[in-house]
Amino acid sequence: DTGVSQDPRHKITKRGQNVTFRCDPISEHNRLYWYRQTLGQGPEFLTYFQNEAQLEKSRLLSDRFSAERPKGSFSTLEIQRTEQGDSAMYLCASSPRTSGSAGELFFGEGSRLTVL
Amino acid sequence: AQKITQTQPGMFVQEKEAVTLDCTYDTSDQSYGLFWYKQPSSGEMIFLIYQGSYDEQNATEGRYSLNFQKARKSANLVISASQLGDSAMYFCAMREVEEYGNKLVFGAGTILRVKS
What we know:
The complex is a heterodimer of chains A (about 120) and B (about 120). Chain A contains no helices and eleven strands. With about 120 residues, chain A is mainly beta. In chain A, strands 2, 4, 5, 6, 9, 10 and 11 form a seven-stranded mixed beta sheet that branches. A four-stranded antiparallel beta sheet of chain A has the order 1-3-8-7, with no helix packed on it. In chain A, β7 (about 65-70) and β8 form a beta hairpin. Chain A is globular and about 40 Å long. The N and C termini of chain A lie far apart (about 35 Å). The mean pLDDT of chain A is about 90. Chain B has strands at about 5, 10-15, 20, 25, 35-40, 45-50, 60, 65-70, 75-80, 90-95, 105, 110-115. In chain B, strands 2, 5, 6, 10, 11 and 12 form a six-stranded mixed beta sheet that branches. A four-stranded antiparallel beta sheet of chain B has the order 3-9-8-7, with no helix packed on it. Chain B has a two-stranded antiparallel ribbon with strand order 1-4. Chain B is globular, with a radius of gyration of 14 Å. Chain B starts with a strand and ends with a strand. The model of chain B has no long low-confidence stretch (mean pLDDT about 90). The interface between A and B is medium-sized, with 28 and 26 residues.
């Protein structure tokens, strides 16, 4: 499978615990994005990497959220001291630097977080 | 300000008939791109079709076509000959100035149900 993969697919945690999600983008893609999607809504942009550099962060990304992409390959999204409002689907996407006329993002299947 | 508006929370269509999903957008940029994604119950976002703001022809991809009306700022998705497998959530998205990558802004989505 050469698509975007995310792990774990599902995570249930208690409020106050830390969680970490991993994303492996398509190998030749140097751009990586994290989005959050709550039930019945469209995905909301969280952050974006070009190679290992984090170039943009949304205001949605509070101090409890941190994302990394060491060596410009896989990425992790960590949420510290989780709150019930963090319950959502966390989507990872990647794209190549030049992707022709479309520039579409290629998404993984997401990591669903439930905070009890 | 909301960038992408999808006014139809849910739509029903009879199998083999055509259906139009509405999308209006708001931008002051001259150069932008419009995308449609499909999200089945599995959660993965699947790219369907793209329209660039300077494209004179409406985009088509198989059974999908995009009815682009620039002056009205609308980018409706038309699905012809609906199939049961088309039942899913559909999102309209926009990319504005590619200052940092291909960040997309999504609408709230439309749930499509195809009836047999």
